[in-house]
Amino acid sequence: MSPLSRRGATVRFCGLLCSTLWFTSSPAHAQGNPGASGMPIKVAMVESLSGSFANAGEAVFRNIAWAVERVNERGGVALPASEGGTRRLQLLRYDSKGQNEEALSALRAAIDDGARIILQGNSSATAAVLIEAINKHNQRDPGRRVVFLNYSAVDPILTNEKCSFWHFRFDAHADMRMAALMEVMRENRALSRVYLIGQDYSFGQAVLREAREQLARQRPDVAIVGEELHPVGRIKDFAPYAVKIKASGAQAVVTGNWGNDLTLLVKAAREVGYEGTFYTFYGNALGAPAALGDAGVGKVVAVADWLPNLPTAASERFYQSFRERFPRPQDDYVHMRMQLLIEALAQALERAGSTDALAVARALEQAEVSLAGQRGRMRASDHQFQQQLVVGVMERLGSPGVRFDVEGSGYGFRVVRQIPAERAEMPTTCQMQRP
Q: Which CATH architecture has domain 175-304+388-424?
């Protein structure tokens, strides 16, 4: 199969936004702007853009596209004349269809199409497969080496035992997120019984494992009354799981579920009359607040790198600018870390003075960026980004601390805990092998 036909199988275009992005990133437009003289730098997003998690993939694309637009609007990336001078970023998208083999095919197509920066995140299993493939590719084909920037795959193993010089994670890993949730759980002295449920793959297993370990250390008085792993993206009716949760007498559920697997779970819990608290990694988006409605008020806790109701003027301006760019309520899914990822990439390209993957990776190890009051730095020892984490509780729009709701649902998240980067940081077991 030719590179062109592979691209036809893996790229899914996206209407107005994608057309706008291709126009602002095109060589012809760049040449018409005195601030951008060289060919665009191709950045390839490999993600599920169809199937059970298409909504999550499209939501990520909006974030990355907006961040790329911001770089291009200020003129692009300043490189030496030998590297084409000032160049814009061009965001390409490849549909992995939620399958690892499709992700590998998309990776090959992206490399053939000239991309040397690969983005992915929605699945730690896919991230692990891509890391292995990129390691091998970069060793066998040094003239076409690529760098992998990960915005959401949070299995701790990816920056520990499976750490790679070519992989950089911009999200807090599962153990860091669990520790942040545990700070809030520790204060709930009425809590005595919890139920653990997650998706049956590396990330979901890591979340449950860390929940057990941290509860044993920090809340030994809390009993785990149920523990379950379910197939990823294949359950359409979570009612049987919700019934078991309710019957267990659990006062709280701890879950790393994301996308439709979270939305359908919380909806089923509401429908069977479960009244406990949900401690979640991703309960603040993609339909979960609307699915719970009033039943979730004060009972859904979410951890994130940033939340829209963070009480600072810079954060408020940042969020309002996103809403202006994407005014439809259903498009309200914004993550600061994805913005910082693109800022770090632009910084690294300029610091390296080159698009060569080795030079860019070395520059990324030194990345330190800030946006709208949120700061982050890349830890060179394992390529785990270090940034503050926040924990929020779901409340009605307009209640104290909730100026902004989620996806037009009428519910938002009040920030109850801010955890500085130095406290969120955790040790690593990575033994980095550098070229």
A: 3-Layer(aba) Sandwich (3.40)
Give the three-state DSSP class for 410: coil
Asked if residue 158 has pLDDT above 90, the reply is yes
The answer to whether 257 and 279 are in contact (CB under 8 A) is: no
Whether pLDDT at 398 is above 90: yes
Stretch 137-141: mean pLDDT: 98
287-330 pLDDT, tens per residue?
888 888 888 899 899 999 999 999 999 999 999 999 999 999 98
Phi-psi region of 293 (alpha: psi -120 to 50; beta: other; left: phi over 0): left
Residues 6+ positions from 29 with CB-CB distance below 8 Å: 23, 36, 88
Contacts of 291 (CB under 8 A, 6+ apart): 263, 264, 266, 267, 270
Which residues does 320 contact at the CB level (< 8 Å), separation at least 6? none
- Give the position of tokens 């479960």: 274
Residue 11: pLDDT band by 50, 70, 90 thresholds? very low
* Domain 3-172+319-386 and domain 175-304+388-424 have a common topology: yes
Superfamily per CATH, domain 3-172+319-386: Response regulator (3.40.50.2300)
CA distance 155 to 127: 9
Instruction: Give the C-alpha separation, 412 to 393, whole Å.
Output: 8
User: Which tokens hold the place of 104?
Assistant: 């590998």
Q: What are the structural domain ranges in the chain?
A: 3-172+319-386, 175-304+388-424
> What's this model's pTM, rounded to 2 decimal places?
0.89
In a 13 Å sphere around the CA of 304, the CA atoms on its Cβ side amount to 25
- Encoding tokens for residue 274? 């479960």
Distance, in Å, from the CA atom of 369 to the CA atom of 179, rounded to the nearest integer, reads 24
Q: Across the strands, what pairs with 199? A: 230
Band of residue 21 on the pLDDT scale cut at 50, 70, 90:
very low
Query: Residue 29 pLDDT more than 80?
Result: no
